[in-house]
């Protein structure tokens, strides 16, 4: 059985191409092994709250960062964000929205719910890699999470 | 009835002589002027031998010798002439018929009023010449006494036998009791007793017989006609020469009046509201009345015997007061302050005088106090009122001198009080004679009202006044002087003048009025007109006045009804009439009229103002035709929600005829009647509504969506009469709006999916092309790598297209948030950002001092970003780019521009510049999507501005955009 507690990054992304490119981008900084990828909001919530498929996970050991797409099957990204930020146990977990949407409404709502960063996926792969590796660097290496 | 004064005198004079008469040795008789004997004393009885009963009422000539009877007439004549008969010696005849020598003297008897009623005669036996003179002297003395006795004849003097029979009865008795001597003599004395009783007399008689003295006493007696009188009686014994008591004399005095007077006096004293008191020479109170008890709060018993001075705040002054009375016999208005036992003080003025006994010995002081507390207060109050009066007040003596003035008089004359008092009243007026006549009139008539005078102030100022004046009197109603109050009417005069002017002004206003004005008497006659009435009727003023008002109208009956309505209801408004001009022209007018009243409130007539409404009428017809011509359904609604008027369009949209619409509920004609009701209620409440959506349901069931604009309409006075509502059929607008809204929503959804779904594959294309070129470069030849490059470039270009398209869409949809935008700073910042990416370029960039704009800042950023990037892009063909940003301000707009020396453009294509995806250059020449200037145009248009460009190929371009100054 896999130890889900070891993953430092939870990637929530329904598009496998984008997911691969994101993981490739993070791989250059040697964070690849610590990434866990789920494809919809429902699974993301199970992972985060240690329910369903991820009941064995310890909620006391959260991922260092959640990379969250907004347009997701089943439960969309804003809903996931809301649930994470509304729960005392998970609200301190950094959430970075990584999306194609530049819509103001999405931005405003995300910040209202307490998102930690909002990144628009560029079409340009070089920029994409740059953006994601700096996010990874920041949240995984620079940022100090609270000690549980 | 004797008054108390006489009674006192007589009391002292009578007692002694009565006994003298009785006890005298001389014969003393009283005679009436006809010679009859009134009384006959013991001496007479002894001398002449006739007893009194034999002689009373008999002629005294009985004792005269026949040859000497003329002596009686002589004596009577002498007495009647007011003299005394000197003693003379003559002869008389006694009962036995013997002639005796006697010396005679006579004196008059007068009643209390001094009227001669008879004479007294003293006769004495004559015994030799040597005694004559002495005797005469004695007689004279006794005569004087007798005269005094006789004077007392107002008293009843009568004698009684010891068994109570009346033996003599004088005129006093006759007067007092009403019995003539003949009726009384020989009767029992009990005829004058109120109760038939002999006991009283028996008791007295027994005392007399025993020789006891009987004090005078008061009792009651009865007259012939039964009246009871209060009487004082003195009783003396009648003795013969041996001293034997042979009878009783009675002197009775009627003291009814005295008694009543005394009772009356006492009750007066007691009833007096003024404290009255008698004080002994030692200063002790000897009597008080009830008022004194009241004012001192000390009971009568305690007051009497106590020191008078005890009861005053200043005892010493009280003492001085009564001592002053004792020394001067009288004081008036001596002021003292009584201290009540409870501490209250009462200011009084004492009037006091001494009272004496009969002999003139001062017995004490009689003092009357008058409470002047309230009077004092009242007078102080009155004085302060007088002083406080703003009206000049003055009192004037009968000689015309000022005796008192108040402060206001000093003010108005400018003369000090001391100088005013004593000076001539008339001095202070512009017309002294008039002033004199004024106060003289007051003295003559008692009062004047509104007597006009003009006071001259010492500084020359003249004040018009009206005098009201009356005489004032002392307590005895003697006129003391004139009290005169002036009222300053300078102001009133001014007001009157003003009023006069005002009325002249009013008249000129009336004349100046363009509206025909007319006054009408209650019988419908014109009483006054203005010039405008002359003009509109074509009839002269002289002719109009006095004629029937109704004459001048096309409908005289209606005119009559009109003014009758005014008389009945007080006024009418907008009463329509048509004046028939003398030239035959008819002028429509509206009359406003109301009754006018005199000062007493009596209706005197009507004031009517007409307004020529010929043009108004035309205007209203015009308005009506406009209303009818309107394609929008128009309707008026009453406060009750009833339709009061409609136009043809309303008839059409409802499918209901005009007649049937008017009077029905407005709300009936809508799919949501409640909402319709709320709508017009809102109008009545707020005054208006705009774009109130309702749906009209026609009679045939057809629905018409309308937007109502409605407002209240009012009469001249601002009273809301109803609602005027105009509907606009927006069925089509509504449909279109709905369509636009839904297509907008679709577009939004499209844009959203474009931004997500369209870019994701591009990212994949670019991303994996990159992976290929990075990780598999060694497995590709140059051509392979070039192809991959083309794939990437196109993917990026497409991504850019999508981004620009999205931004174009967003700029069209996003709400404009206006703020003040510092355009200069924004331009410099954007330029700086773009310049930094092109370090190799030579660019001369200048920004003028451009004004700030009131616009959406984010959108302005889009505008400047596009224009600046274009300028930089299209100048790269030049060695040195010259870009200039500036502005031109006009009245209502600010025009910004950006000018470059770049590639420029052909002016014939300028219309294509701002179209979406429109490009004047190939991507090979200048990259771009053709969306930038479209975005600029969209933003400027949304700010109600304009954008345009000028250019020349190879020389450069200038882009302008103008924004309204106030948006």
UniProtKB/TrEMBL annotation, chain A:
<dbReference type="GO" id="GO:0000160">
    <property type="term" value="P:phosphorelay signal transduction system"/>
</dbReference>
<dbReference type="InterPro" id="IPR001789">
    <property type="entry name" value="Sig_transdc_resp-reg_receiver"/>
</dbReference>
<protein>
    <submittedName>
        <fullName>Two-component system response regulator</fullName>
    </submittedName>
</protein>
<keyword id="KW-0597">Phosphoprotein</keyword>
<dbReference type="InterPro" id="IPR052893">
    <property type="entry name" value="TCS_response_regulator"/>
</dbReference>
<feature type="domain" description="Response regulatory">
    <location>
        <begin position="8"/>
        <end position="136"/>
    </location>
</feature>
<dbReference type="InterPro" id="IPR011006">
    <property type="entry name" value="CheY-like_superfamily"/>
</dbReference>
<dbReference type="Pfam" id="PF00072">
    <property type="entry name" value="Response_reg"/>
</dbReference>
<feature type="modified residue" description="4-aspartylphosphate">
    <location>
        <position position="69"/>
    </location>
</feature>
UniProtKB/TrEMBL annotation, chain B:
<keyword id="KW-0808">Transferase</keyword>
<dbReference type="InterPro" id="IPR052162">
    <property type="entry name" value="Sensor_kinase/Photoreceptor"/>
</dbReference>
<feature type="domain" description="PAC">
    <location>
        <begin position="449"/>
        <end position="501"/>
    </location>
</feature>
<dbReference type="InterPro" id="IPR036890">
    <property type="entry name" value="HATPase_C_sf"/>
</dbReference>
<dbReference type="GO" id="GO:0006355">
    <property type="term" value="P:regulation of DNA-templated transcription"/>
</dbReference>
<dbReference type="Pfam" id="PF00989">
    <property type="entry name" value="PAS"/>
</dbReference>
<dbReference type="InterPro" id="IPR003661">
    <property type="entry name" value="HisK_dim/P_dom"/>
</dbReference>
<dbReference type="InterPro" id="IPR004358">
    <property type="entry name" value="Sig_transdc_His_kin-like_C"/>
</dbReference>
<feature type="domain" description="PAC">
    <location>
        <begin position="690"/>
        <end position="742"/>
    </location>
</feature>
<dbReference type="InterPro" id="IPR000014">
    <property type="entry name" value="PAS"/>
</dbReference>
<feature type="domain" description="PAC">
    <location>
        <begin position="332"/>
        <end position="384"/>
    </location>
</feature>
<feature type="domain" description="PAS">
    <location>
        <begin position="261"/>
        <end position="316"/>
    </location>
</feature>
<dbReference type="InterPro" id="IPR035965">
    <property type="entry name" value="PAS-like_dom_sf"/>
</dbReference>
<feature type="domain" description="Histidine kinase">
    <location>
        <begin position="753"/>
        <end position="967"/>
    </location>
</feature>
<feature type="domain" description="PAC">
    <location>
        <begin position="215"/>
        <end position="267"/>
    </location>
</feature>
<dbReference type="Pfam" id="PF02518">
    <property type="entry name" value="HATPase_c"/>
</dbReference>
<keyword id="KW-0597">Phosphoprotein</keyword>
<dbReference type="InterPro" id="IPR000700">
    <property type="entry name" value="PAS-assoc_C"/>
</dbReference>
<dbReference type="InterPro" id="IPR001610">
    <property type="entry name" value="PAC"/>
</dbReference>
<feature type="domain" description="PAC">
    <location>
        <begin position="573"/>
        <end position="625"/>
    </location>
</feature>
<dbReference type="Pfam" id="PF13426">
    <property type="entry name" value="PAS_9"/>
</dbReference>
<feature type="domain" description="PAS">
    <location>
        <begin position="142"/>
        <end position="211"/>
    </location>
</feature>
